Amino acid sequence: MTNEPQATSSCCSTSAPAPAAAAGGRKNLLDAGASDDMTTCPVMVGRPVSKKAAEASGLYRDYEGTRYYFCCPGCGPAFDSDPARHAATMA
Fold first, then answer.
1. Which of 8, 22, 30, 60 could bond 17 through an S-S bridge, CB–CB 3.0 to 4.6 Å?
2. How far is the C-alpha of 80 from the C-alpha of 63, rounded, in Å?
3. Which residues form the domain of 50?
4. In the chain, how many domains are there?
5. Which of 40, 46, 38 is closest to 18 using CA atoms?
6. What are the tens digits of pLDDT across the range 39-74?
7. Which residues contact 7 (CB under 8 A, 6 or more apart)?
8. Sign, CA torsion 79/80/86/90
9. Contacts of 42 (CB under 8 A, 6+ apart)
10. Quick one: CA torsion of 31, 64, 85, 77, rounded to 10 degrees?
11. Residue 19 domain flag
């Protein structure tokens, strides 16, 4: 057995950490002069997402004329199950 941290299979399998506690010494991109490229995930509310990275990975959906970007592959199917509810979190 090693002392290395175990990676989770999907960020959606854990609850969203509080921004200050989650940073672990890393910059919070939403607080550090983020560009127009940054948004948040509508499924894991508050989780920062780079629009460019999400698009490159196919982690987005278009719903009622708006594009929604996801933080991980598990969020797309979750959004699809109830897009109106998840879109409302971004309003």
1. 22
2. 10
3. 36-91
4. 1
5. 46
6. 999 999 999 999 999 999 999 999 999 999 999 999
7. none
8. positive
9. 68, 70, 75, 79, 86, 87, 89, 90
10. -90
11. no
- Does some domain include residue 8? no
Per-residue pLDDT at 91: 83
Domain membership of residue 9 (yes or no) is no
DSSP 18-60: PHHHHHTTS--TTTS---TTEEE-SSSTT-EEEHHHHHHHT-E
Residue 43 lies in a domain: yes
DSSP secondary structure code for residue 67 in this structure: E
Instruction: Give the C-alpha separation, 38 to 36, whole Å.
Output: 6
- Position 19 scores a pLDDT of 40
